[in-house]
Amino acid sequence: MDISPRLRWKLDRFKEQMSGLIGGGAKENPRPKLCPACGTLVGATATKCHQCGASLTFGMAAASRSLGRLLPTTSPATYGILTLSCLLYGVSLLATIRTTGFQAPAGGGFSALMSLGAISGKVLQEFGASLPLPYNLQQPWRLVMAVFLHGSLLHIAFNMWVLMDFGPQVEEMYGSARYLFIYVATGVGGYVLSSLFGHFAIGGSGAILGLCGVIIAVTAGSRSIGHQMLRAQVVRLLIYILVIAILPIGLFGNIDNLAHIGGFASGFALGKIMVDRTPSSPEEWKRANLLGWATALVIAASLGMVAFGVLRASS
């Protein structure tokens, strides 16, 4: 008896489903996979790597691999820093508009450009600006949050432009996990020095100068053409920053040179201590993942403290 093509398709689908239920269907041979920690080829059904012992289903390496699927394949930490900084700027700008209304740029010419999209000091303080050291010691999360906050549109635009210029190169040197640690640690180092002298400060420039310090430390004395070109780029940037620093105060806003010095010194020290290459052994991968995840948790905890403070203040 002839049956219609549609009915035949339904019967075939029913047979496939029944075969799957009783285990009679054909199964594809599972393929071997790579260990996320050391890259060793392991069996398809293995749960632990026979080379380094890392868990293939749960652990920092597996979590890093899963997170990596959601991030850009190149420079994921740099893009993560960029995204968080821009999001915090957008939220703080909305909070400023909500509390004080939209403020037209003050003054004229360059001054108006500098004040475009300015964030109020009250909002910045609520969102985690770095304060004099006694306050930072009571609320240490401020040393982290200040790295990702910015005071105006031009402020964040300049910092993120320089970040995207040098960040990917340092991230390629050290790997994403250790790079994230370097960025946050040098930013914190800059604000420790700044707060020691009683400054109110925000911005990623201390951490960016930290990246410059790392590059200077790594490329010092190197005869590599690539290292020499990179060092020349950094030296030019440092000259620009030095020129801006000695211009009349107020022309470029309140520049925290102490945060720049502290960040650069922290980066130079880390550049001399840490090996300038990606991890090459299972133990190094494990330490790098631990460092990266610990830094990410510190950032998350700092964001949580800010959210808790803002909600408590608004209730």
List descriptors:
mainly alpha; 315 residues; single chain; 2 strands; globular
Strand tally: 2
- The residue-averaged pLDDT reads 82
**What order do the SSEs take from the amino end to the carboxyl end, as H and E?**
HEEHHHHHHHHHHHH
Strand order within the widest beta sheet: 1-2
Write down the oligomeric state. single chain
Strand content range? under 5%
Helix/strand-derived category reads mainly alpha
Q: Which range best describes the helical content: under 10%, 10-25%, 25-40%, 40-55%, 55-70% or over 70%?
A: 55-70%
Distance between the termini: 75 Å
Shape summary: globular
Describe this structure in words.
This protein is mainly alpha-helical and 315 residues long. It has a single domain (75-314), classed as Rhomboid-like fold, CATH 1.20.1540.10. The chain has helices spanning 5-22, 60-68, 76-100, 110-114, 121-126, 133-138, 141-145, 153-174, 176-196, 205-219, 225-246, 257-273, 282-314; strands at residues 33-34, 41-42. Strands 1-2 form a two-stranded antiparallel ribbon. The longest helix has 33 residues, at 282-314. 34% of the residues are buried.
Summarize the topology:
Blueprint: H1 5-22, E1 33-34, E2 41-42, H2 60-68, H3 76-100, H4 110-114, H5 121-126, H6 133-138, H7 141-145, H8 153-174, H9 176-196, H10 205-219, H11 225-246, H12 257-273, H13 282-314
Antiparallel strand pairs: 1-2
Helix pairs in contact: 3-8, 3-9, 8-9, 8-10, 9-10, 9-12, 9-13, 10-11, 10-12
